[in-house]
Design brief:
Elements (H helix, E strand, L loop, with lengths): L3 E3 L3 H7 L11 H17 L4 E5 L8 H11 L6 E5 L1 H10 L3 H10 L2 H7 L13 H11 L11 E7 L5 E4 L4 H9 L8 E3 L2 E5 L8 H6 L4 E6 L15 H6 L12 H6 L1 H5 L9 H23 L4 E4 L13 H20 L12
Parallel strand pairs: 2-3, 2-8, 3-4, 8-9
Antiparallel strand pairs: 1-5, 4-5, 4-7, 6-7
Helix pairs in contact: 3-14, 4-5, 4-8, 7-8
Length: about 350
Amino acid sequence: MLSLRSRNLQDHDAEAGSGMTDEPQAPPTTIVRKADTEAKRERRGQPTIGLALGAGAARGWSHIGVIRELVAHGICPDVIAGTSIGAVVGGCYAAGKLDAIETFARSLTKRRVFTLMDLSFSGASLITGERLRSALEKELADIDIEELPIPFAAVATEVGTGHEVWLQHGSLSLAIRASYALPGIFEPVRIGDRWLFDGALVNPVPVTVCRALGAEYVIAVNVTADTMYRARVIRDDPAALKRAAEAGPFGEKADGSFVDRFLPRYFDRLASDAPNVATAMIDAFNIIQDRILRSRLAGDPPDATITARMEEVGMFDFHRAEQLIHVGSEATKRALPNIFAHIPLPTAAPAT
């Protein structure tokens, strides 16, 4: 079971009798790992570096390029916090699975993205997310957050109360699923006695979480900065989908007739160009997220910001990983002079 830390829980916990204090203390494992982080910082003469990876759906593949470029220049984060797709990439990096998530991202095609969208008939969402869950559990099976070599937290939102929940213990794959469970699109995730969904509703770029984990210098990665950001959908030829339907992502056969008849109804524009269900929900979510992000960053600004601008990349353009990773790398290169102006350049290891 995951251990939860959330904001503004006083009234809720008094009613629920959960035993949480008004100001929850860091668990012993977090204290020990903060001590390890301090030791690392002293050895290399740099401040404790936190990396806050923001939400942004498909655009989040650019986080891979950001991390690659930072590490290549000797900037290795001591703590990581992620929201939604930021939790996916950040959690995989903390678990030593960055190569695996990059390989998966680069393997996605338009057809394969569609086959991952297993339509839900439960009434709780449009997509069940079972195929994505299977992919995550295959790579992250039996990995608990507290066992990661880097302190990590995923941000989620509690259904009903709107509390911000920081997932710092328990199953890494479960925490990631809760963090990216876009309301109405993916089914919410139950952890303990709480139902959780996408953390972008409360903290799209979790700078505050990095600071709570002990970061002295926080690098925020914002992939939704441009004002042109709107939901886009993947258009494809139904005939082509039928021809490629036999190559499902996990060995199963995709139903071509199902893809043709149902998915466009939910994810494609109507003939009148009016928004359909998914498009309307995603556009509304993006508007809310943008307003929340501006407020949160104004209240607790990061020490450095990496801004990846991708005006023409939409919410479901997961098949454009190669381009997005390159965008993240280039955005990081532009930010490096500012970063190195405030932290010491990495020193070379002494010759042995």
